[in-house]
Amino acid sequence: MNDVAWDAWLAGMIDGEGCLTINEQLTTNPARSSAHWANLAVVNTDKAALDEMQTREGGSLYRKRQSSLRHKECWAWNLCSQQLVDLLRRIRAHLRVKREQAWLVLEFDASRSDCRGIARPTPEELALRAGFRLALQNAKLGG
């Protein structure tokens, strides 16, 4: 499969089976600040497809716990950090269902690029990140 076909196929998998989130880890430790990061999860019973996604794009792959013996074995592929940003930039034009969500993740990433690992984010920066998280949740609800 050539790169354009791969990107279109992958966008379809993400549109249909993917979940974009901005996660938040709060802390009460004054020496640490809260953390926010974007994540993509694609869950499917077709392990071969998810294996190919991990091979081509990176990330992690793990088996999900079966909720019942009647359900098929299920796998999850996760991607975050710069790998996710690079992927979304590349496939954004192919996305239909999750285009707005991808835009929010990319804007979230752009808003935090100036202080990674250098300084603690200000309260205003933390509020902006939390705002992106809420906007993404709202976009999933169709609002």
Structural topology:
Blueprint: H1 3-17, E1 18-25, E2 35-44, H2 47-57, E3 60-64, E4 74-80, H3 81-91, H4 99-112, H5 123-140
Antiparallel strand pairs: 1-2, 2-4, 3-4
Structure commentary:
This protein is of the alpha+beta class and 143 residues long. It has a single domain, classed as Homing endonucleases (Endonuclease I-creI, Roll). The protein has helices at residues 3-17, 47-57, 81-91, 99-112, 123-140, and strands at 18-25, 35-44, 60-64, 74-80. The protein has a four-stranded antiparallel sheet with strand order 1-2-4-3. Helix 4 (99-112) runs antiparallel to helix 5. The protein is globular, with a radius of gyration of 16 Å.
